[in-house]
Design goal:
Radius of gyration: 25 Å
Strand content: 15-25%
Number of helices: 18
Structural class: alpha/beta
Helix content: 25-40%
Number of domains: 3
Bound molecules: fructose -6-phosphate
Shape: globular
CATH architecture of the largest domain: 4-Layer Sandwich
CATH topology of the largest domain: Glutamine Phosphoribosylpyrophosphate, subunit 1, domain 1
CATH superfamily of the largest domain: Aminohydrolase, N-terminal nucleophile (Ntn) domain
CATH class of the largest domain: Alpha Beta
Length: 612
């Protein structure tokens, strides 16, 4: 949430920062701004709306500079507007700052500063922080770095901040707690960003800044210190993403590109781990913890949104294979209800970004109480990956579309591997079933490729139903979370109200909504619940609802009842959600596009929710 980017070096900074902001726009697009330092001092430009509007606003203006900071905002404090946009300046106009996060005690700090005569131009917590730093600098007669350190000791909340100072034009100062910051190390230049996507074009060498670290960055020098002013050794890592992975590659939208990447991303998530021919499964990241996992009293999966839906499917898979009780918790709820958790419990945190604030806080709480933490996330080096005792990455590659698609199927694949590995360790699965599921996973990416061929058919169905006011999504068992995910995708992308429900639970309320105008999407592939779902379809048809059914190829029964049928390849019910979710993604995508919406940047949303 909110993207920050900065550059210091010999090149023109503005084009680098502008391009970086476009790459980070998925993190928020309420407003954008830049601050530049050149011979004529500090200049701040900002504009409500998307980065393109800032770019138009700056066309023809003098933006020459070798030092710049930029921000794309997802509004927290203060409505989206020019004046609430970042960067924010200090009272004397000499400092400018960008911020991702929330300063929770900003109101108290603001009262103190107002009494001292500070005047604020925005409603943001960020402007309060920069005035607070300025106040300390002036009252303590100290440098910016020292003032920042003192200020951060009083700040409650999460932040990544980057500061430029007109009086020190050859230095950027940054600090982090709770929100992500990556520094790209070039030859005589440094790049700062919320993630690696603005950096990868220029350098693959990066430093992931840790919580409570302050970075002092010059063109040719990077100094890291902790909050007690002790030098830290920057740990330089090599990125393994390519530029092509963060570009649209000929697709109209990132979302469509990412949906179509799934055969590859699922394959990549399984590669090197699963060898169906040899009947082996290796998960290096959890090897040392496999025995502890097999003895777990309980597994608690914490996640948000789409990752939570992946967790729900994993609950069914792990309970079935490992016979260990599994609970799936919304991270935000888990954290704040003083959960009963401790030694013997295993937490699996599932997250695409690896930066979701609620998930991080939930993990921290459980870790403090003695639980073992496993991370399943997509972004290498992310906060969730680093906070985990062990884990397994999904190898879905950068997901730029705000609606999660390929990360979800990669999570399902990896969670299934974890379930199988623990079951093997525990001896709760027969060799025959183990081998069968390895074979099923081994062929799943080919079946996803077959499913994607339904794109045109799904587009036609989307056109037929795009004007509906509401949708109901129903499924049972492994397909119930798929129904939830289908409804979430539709809401996000097309702004149509949609509800996901367990198909049987529909009778306990939502059936009242059914009439001839209500499309009901059934996820009804051939599994142990199939006959029951057929009955549920009949209940909907009896009330004249329109049924769109996702079924297994060759189904003879449901096509005779449904208004529209989408056939996916047959698969074991444990892995079938990886296939049945594809039509959900495509249906939402096409309805969103047909309604004329920007599906990559749906309103009010942002990827990587770094505020609680
Ligand atoms: C939905 C979506 C969100 C995320 C959620 C968790 O399409 O993208 O619901 O799934 O914000 O994000 P991560 O997985 O990054 O923790």
């Amino acid at each position: 949430m909110c993207g920050i980017v900065a550059y210091i070096g010999q090149r023109e900074a503005y084009p680098i920062v502008l391009k970086g902001l476009k790459r980070l726009e998925y993190r928020g697009y309420d407003s954008a701004g830049v601050a530049l330092l050149n011979g004529s001092g500090l200049k701040v430009f900002k504009k409500k709306g998307k980065v393109a509007e800032l770019e138009d606003h700056l066309t023809g203006k003098d933006v020459r500079s070798h030092v710049a900071i930029g921000h794309t905002r997802w509004a927290t404090h203060g409505e989206p507007s020019d004046r609430n946009s970042h960067p924010h300046a200090s009272g004397n106009g000499k400092l400018a700052m960008i911020h991702n996060g929330i300063i929770e005690n900003y109101s108290q700090l603001k009262q103190e500063l107002l009494k001292k005569g500070h005047v604020f131009k925005s409603d943001t917590d960020t402007e309060v922080l920069i005035h607070f730093i300025e106040e300390i600098q002036q009252s303590n007669q100290c440098g910016l770095e020292e003032a920042l350190r003192i200020a951060l000791k009083r700040v409650v909340g999460a932040y990544v901040i980057v500061l430029v100072d007109e009086d020190n034009p050859d230095t950027l100062i940054a600090a982090r707690k709770g929100s992500p910051l990556v520094i790209g190390v070039g030859k005589g230049e440094h790049f700062l960003a919320s993630d690696a996507s603005p950096i990868v074009e220029y350098t693959k060498e990066v430093v992931f800044v840790n919580d409570y670290e302050i970075a002092i960055i010059k063109a040719d020098e990077l100094i890291l210190k902790n909050i007690s002013n002790e030098r830290q050794t920057p740990y330089i890592q090599k990125l393994d993403i390519e530029l092509a992975a963060i570009e649209k590659g000929g697709y109209d939208h990132f979302m469509l590109k990412e949906i179509f990447e799934q055969p590859q991303t699922i394959f990549d998530s399984l590669r090197g781990r699963l060898d169906a021919k040899k009947g082996t499964l290796t998960l290096g990241g959890i090897r040392e913890h496999a025995a502890l996992l097999a003895q777990a009293k309980r597994i608690i999966i914490v996640a948000c949104g789409t990752s939570w839906h992946a967790g729900l499917i994993a609950e069914y898979v792990i309970e079935e294979l490992c016979r260990i009780p599994v609970e799936v918790e919304y991270a935000s709820e888990f954290r704040y209800r003083n959960p009963v958790v401790g030694e013997g419990d295993v937490i699996i945190a599932v997250s695409q970004s690896g930066e979701t604030a609620d998930t991080l806080v939930a993990m921290e709480a459980a870790k403090e109480k003695g639980a073992i933490i496993l991370g399943v996330c997509n972004v290498v080096g992310s906060s969730i990956a680093r906070l985990s005792h062990a884990g397994a990455y999904t190898h879905a590659g950068p997901e730029i579309g705000v609606a999660s698609t390929k990360a979800f199927t990669a999570q399902l694949a990896v969670l299934c591997l974890i379930g199988l590995r623990v079951a093997q360790e525990k001896g709760s699965i027969t060799q025959q079933r183990f081998q069968h599921l390895l074979d099923e996973l081994d062929t799943i990416s080919e079946k996803v490729a077959v499913t994607l061929k339904l794109n045109d058919q799904i587009k036609t169905i989307a056109d037929k139903y795009k004007d509906a006011r509401d949708f109901l999504y129903l499924g049972r068992g492994y397909n119930f979370p798929v129904a939830l995910e289908g409804a979430l995708k539709l809401k996000e992308i097309s702004y149509i109200h949609a509800e996901g429900y367990p198909a049987a639970e529909m009778k306990h309320g939502p059936i009242a909504l059914v009439d001839e105008n209500l499309p009901v999407v059934f996820v009804a592939t051939h599994d142990s619940y199939y006959e029951k779902v057929v009955s549920n379809i009949q209940e909907i048809k009896a009330r004249k609802g329109k049924v769109i059914a996702v079924v297994t190829e060759g189904d003879q029964t449901i096509p005779a009842m449904a208004d529209d049928v989408i056939e996916v390849p047959a698969a074991d019910e444990l892995v079938a959600p990886i296939l049945s979710v594809i039509p959900m993604q495509l249906l939402a995508y096409h309805i969103g596009v047909l309604k004329g919406f920007d599906v990559d940047k749906p309103r009010n949303l942002a990827k990587s929710v770094t505020v609680e």
